[in-house]
Amino acid sequence: MVNPILLIVVPLATAFFIPIFSLIWKGGSKYLALLAALFNIAVASELLVKVKNGPIHVTIAGYKAPIGIDLLAGHLGVVFALIISVIGFLVLIYSISYIKGGWLDRYYALFLLLLAGTTGMVLTNDIFNLFVFFEIVCISSYILVAYNQDSHGLEASIKYLILGSIGSTLFLIAIALIYMKMGTLNMADISDKIGGIDSASRMLIIVLLITGLGVEGALFPLNSWLPDAHASAPSTISALLSGFVIEVALIVLVKLTYSVFHATSILVFLAVLGVTTLLIGEFAAFRQENIKRALAYSSIGQIGLILFALSLNTEAGIRAGMFQIINHAASKSILFLASGYMILKTGSYLYKDYRGIAKKMPVSAFLFAVGALSLIGVPPFLGFFSKIQIIMAAAATGSVLNLWLIAAVLLGTIIEGIYFLKIVIVMFSGTGEELSFSGGAPFGAVLPIILLGLVVIAGFVFLPYLNTVNTSVAQEIVKHLSLAQLF
Amino acid sequence: MHNILANLVSVEWIIYIASFGLILTGLFIVFTDKNLIKIIIGLDMAETGVNILIVAAGYIKGNTAPIFSKASLTPAQMTDPVPQALVLTSIVIGFGVTALALALVVRLYQKTGSLDVSKIRGLKW
Amino acid sequence: MRKIVGLLLIFGFGFYLVTIIGPVVFPSSTGEKASVGVEVLKNEVAEVGAANTVTSVVVLYRGFDTLGEVTVLFLAALGLTLLMKGEKHLQAKLFDESFILKTGSYLLFPFMILFGMYIIVHGHLTPGGGFPGGVIIATGYFIIVMTSDVVRLREGLVSFLEGLAGLTFIGLGLVGLFKPADSFLFNFLSKGTFNTLLSAGIIPFIYAAIGIKVGSELTGAVGNMFFSPYGRQKDA
Predict the structure, then answer these.
(1) What is d(CA A176, CA B51) in angstroms, rounded to the nearest whole number?
(2) H or E element: which one contains A463?
(3) Nearest chain C CA: its distance from A473 CA (Å)
(4) Mean pLDDT, range A332-339, rounded to an integer
(5) Largest CA distance in chain C
(6) A282, A172, A162: which is closest to A225 by C-alpha?
(7) Beta strand pairing status for A56-59 and A70-73?
(8) What count of CB pairs under 8 Å joins A to C?
(9) Which residues touch C66 (CB under 8 Å, ≥6 apart)?
(10) What is the DSSP letter of A379?
(11) Residue C183: which residues within 8 A CB-CB, separation 6 or more?
(12) A33 near A14, Cβ under 8 Å?
């Protein structure tokens, strides 16, 4: 049997091996990183088949669940592990031609640690272990944001670090309180015992955890770091951070709220918070002239939409939210990766300088348009189906508040449509003579964008399969965890 | 007099005052101070306060460290070992974050010539 | 203005913490406490056989956390080298150290290394272990670097040791997967005689790997900070 722990341990071991390997073969670390990512894709897809027979539960060091640490690879964990490894692999291919400066083997080591950390966050069934992986993700993102070592990157990184550290401090207070009150750290055990403690402490634990994870998950008042960090990081790293890192923090937050703390009463608040985040993100993105900042604010908007869907407190809502996560991961990676070479070639971050770029880099510009249209929700791209599902799920709850929130989501979509179309129109107008550079992006950089583009364009073929998988994830999140079901 | 004091000052209160004092002072520095070095010191203080709280979660009154160094010691005489292991992890993580933050500040100072968050361009919150 | 808002925020948060965590009373005997740790205490000697229960929790029961912790240190060292390394290494002397100070630090160095190793290998018997031991070894190097200007860091060696120690940790863990136990970090060695150096199965070996890793990482971090062109300014 394939042990899900390999998904975490193999990238870690590769990252540890890279400094030794670079002494023997300088510049060979990229192939090692690619191998590790490929291995993860293979393991995750095999687990995806196996997980149909129920979640895979493994203990570490052979001690039974509440005593030792254990991993729970259910549908949620495996689907996310697959998303992470696929996006990671494609971005790694892109990195080989895109990342030239700096200390390359350190870059690949950090990249693998980011993949291992995010995979660990979705697989673990222990709340302190979750904190440790959360910190691995945070610290590797701090370093990668500052990878270019320009003053923008350093500023963004320190800002991210300060907010992130406040978040992890609050997270730790919550863990201390959990251990004081319940004497356990296992999520299933917490879920069994949470009913036995007083509601005030339960509330404090939930508030602290939501604030702590919300910093990384970019919830509204805590997301001031995001546009700076995502805009100043190298484009590959922006693709990762927007593509799955914030989503992982968000899904873990939602999983804790539903299946561990059973705090369904707080979900209305989260839904309103999600729509607020959406509106603020889209309005801010509308005003941006820097393409990467616009994309970063658009990520905030999308995160708001995902949070809204996930906190509808119905299975349909969570299913739609998962669908939107998959769509956003693919589309936003396309947008960041496609804009990476546009920025490199034109030497400008302002999209008004990209007039006529479609003539010089036709594939990148076309796929940029595909990604943008999918995020807006234009048929027949993947985003259309996910957005329709979210609106239908929200309408099906029948509450008046949700109808108002749907109206706000539609308003956000209109704004999103306007600014994305504005960028796309600039790219496709003009003759291309305004631009002085020659030659488009190299093939190695276009290939991953094409593959992601295929997912977005032809995604509707797999619609029934995606729906079954997302339904299983939704059922898993709604169900209360308990120790008894693990054995 | 002695009894009143003993009732007022319990182990709990000593630990909670130390822990909350450090957490709140640290967070106050982070929110209000403009010097990056002081902000990092504030983060470190808050971190220390939380560590005290975690260790306290494993305390059992009158019990000793969980090390079986003498044959006469029994588990009933010992404190809970798990929070002590947790705090070791959290100290090391705090160390890593602090070291990284200081390196970032050194580089930022070298680029911009200032440690004041309000004078460095993008940093507003 | 900022201060007043901050003060209000802090007071609110503090009040919330005090009202909820404040009334929690510590248990006055082990019987009153129901927790994972108490269960561990009852079974540890029979299951693992390490005199220091905290060590067995750190290395085995919660060994996966420790792997993450080592990774965080690795990340911090990686970030420091990435950020602090410039094109050239600064070789200037900070100030004129006296002969006594230099000789003293050279004399101290081997003893500090020895003491660090002692702490590392006795981690499962007495307080200490890989983390404090590694820090002591790095301190030995730090003292040499502070007092003398001739020492240079052999970066290749440091990153080699660092990677090798990390791989040893994961390798020892992976061996557990092949055993019938099929569990990462499974304790596949015999428990040995209680309270002796070679007891508690794989704990001393893993802690030694952690010690080497922490020592080399911190040494590398100190060296990179110290010899970085951004790390110190030459005295005018």
Answers:
(1) 9
(2) helix A463-478
(3) 26
(4) 92
(5) 66
(6) A162
(7) antiparallel
(8) 153
(9) B89, C58, C59, C210
(10) T
(11) A58, A59, A60, A61, A62, C176, C177
(12) yes
* C196-210 tens-digit pLDDT: 777 778 888 888 999
**Per-residue pLDDT tens for C4-19?**
888 888 888 888 888 8
pLDDT interval class at C235 (50, 70, 90): very low
Alpha helices by DSSP H, listed for C85-98, are none
**What is the interface pTM, i.e. ipTM, of the complex?**
0.91
pLDDT of residue B3 exceeding 90, the answer is no
Q: Judge if the upstream peptide bond of residue A380 is cis by omega within 30 degrees of 0.
A: yes
Give residue-wise pLDDT tens across range C112-140: 999 999 999 888 888 888 889 999 999 98
What stretch of H or E contains A319?
Answer: helix A315-346
pLDDT for residue C236: 35
Q: What domains does chain B contain, in order, with CATH numbers?
A: 2-61+75-112 (1.10.287.3510)
Q: Which residues contact B3 (CB under 8 A, 6 or more apart)?
A: none
Find out whether A310 and A266 touch, Cβ atoms under 8 Å: no
Q: Which residues of A touch B15 (CB under 8 A)?
A: none
Query: Residue B5: its pLDDT value, please?
Result: 67
Residues listed for chain C: 236
- Alpha carbon dihedral C111, C112, C116, C117, in 10-degree steps, equals -30
Helices (H), A67-150: 75-98, 104-123, 127-145
Partners of residue A71 on adjacent β-strands: A58, A124
Cβ C20–A201 below 8 Å, yes or no?
A: yes
| Tokens at B86, concatenated | 């947790």
Please name the helix (run of DSSP H) or strand (run of DSSP E) that holds residue A128, with its range, or none. helix A127-145
CB contact under 8 A, A67 and C61: yes
Rounded Cα gap, residues C128 and C51, in angstroms: 12
Q: What are the chain C neighbours of B24 within 8 Å (beta carbons)?
A: 10, 13-14
Q: How far apart are CA A124 and CA A252, in angstroms?
A: 10
